[in-house]
Amino acid sequence: MNLEAFTAGRQARWAELEARTATLAGSRLRSLRAEDVERFAILYRRAASDLAIARRDFPDQAITEYLNSLCGRAHVLLNRGSPPRFRNALRFFATGAPRVFRANAGYFLASLALLLAGTVAGWLAYDLRPDLRGLLVPDSLFAQMAQGSPGISVPEPFLAAPSIFLHNIEVAVLVFILGVGAGVPTAFFVFLQGWSLGTLGAAVHGGGYDYAFWSLIAAHGVLEMSVIVTAGAAGLRLGDALLRPGLRSRADSLAHAGGDMVGLAVATMLLLVIAGTLEAFVSPSGLPGGAKIAIGLGVGACFYAWLLLAGHERRAIPHLDLDAAMPAGRLPEAGG
């Protein structure tokens, strides 16, 4: 087949697709009637088939470049996703993120195990190696405890809040992004968070300030550490996608996992604003320690209730048509 014969019977279809593509530029297929969308799809598939033939038989001809451009523009119109909307973001936050969390609960448990392991290891390191306590815990902590303080001082709330927000979000983002290193840096960073908590808790326990310390950090700490662990779970999922891509390429596997994990990580990181507000205004306040602990547990309960309960699909209750099940005018006999 020569070039003239190839183009002769196809130019009309190409021209129609060109016209429809130009008409739709800047608009959406949703505005068309069903038959017009079907016609557009048929024209695109035929043009794509023509492009395959042209690439094989006429690779250096201008017609091949033209068909490539035409198919590219039509493909964008057919496969254009819906634009991001605030309503869609709210829907994902309300139902999508919890579903992603539950589908990847194993990674959350692994991240939680790393945090707890780090906490235990840090506590034991402080207790078993008294000679290293100065390296494990800042000297300022011991100085504050010697003055009767639990070891943590919080600056002025309105000045502290912005820096607390940024610091918490930076930590969560780092834990998540490090997952692209096959998950190893994420695992180490989550373990390190637990290590810091363990050494600090052991030092405070040695000074006899357990209640003052834990009541001070409970209000914000439960939510804050839960978000860090969730970010760690998302990072571990990315690492697993690289280590076990399955039938996909590693790049495709990472992109597939990242699509859901980014949404989950962002949704939970937004809650760090709440944790930061509690840390700046509630934790250093004059509220009784029991009230601070209750606030922390209550916020944590809401967090896990959202992740574990939201977004479940409601199952329709089967409808029993009694009129169809029994002959007209006849009641079921007792015991039958």
Structure description:
The chain is an all-alpha fold and 336 residues long. The protein has two domains: 3-78; 88-309, no CATH class. The chain contains 15 helices and no strands. It has helices spanning 3-8, 11-24, 34-57, 62-78, 86-103, 105-128, 133-136, 139-146, 157-177, 184-207, 210-243, 250-269, 272-282, 289-309, 322-325. Helix 2 (11-24) packs across helix 3, helix 2 crosses helix 4 and helix 3 (34-57) packs antiparallel against helix 4 (62-78). The radius of gyration is 30 Å and the shape is elongated. The chain starts with a helix and ends in an 11-residue tail after the last helix. Residues 319-336 have low confidence and may be disordered.
Report low-confidence residues grouped into runs of 5 or more: 319-336
Rg, rounded, reads 30 Å
Through-space gap between termini? 79 Å
Topology pattern, helix = H, strand = E: HHHHHHHHHHHHHHH
Integer count of domains: 2
Q: Roughly how much helix do the residues carry, as a percent range?
A: over 70%
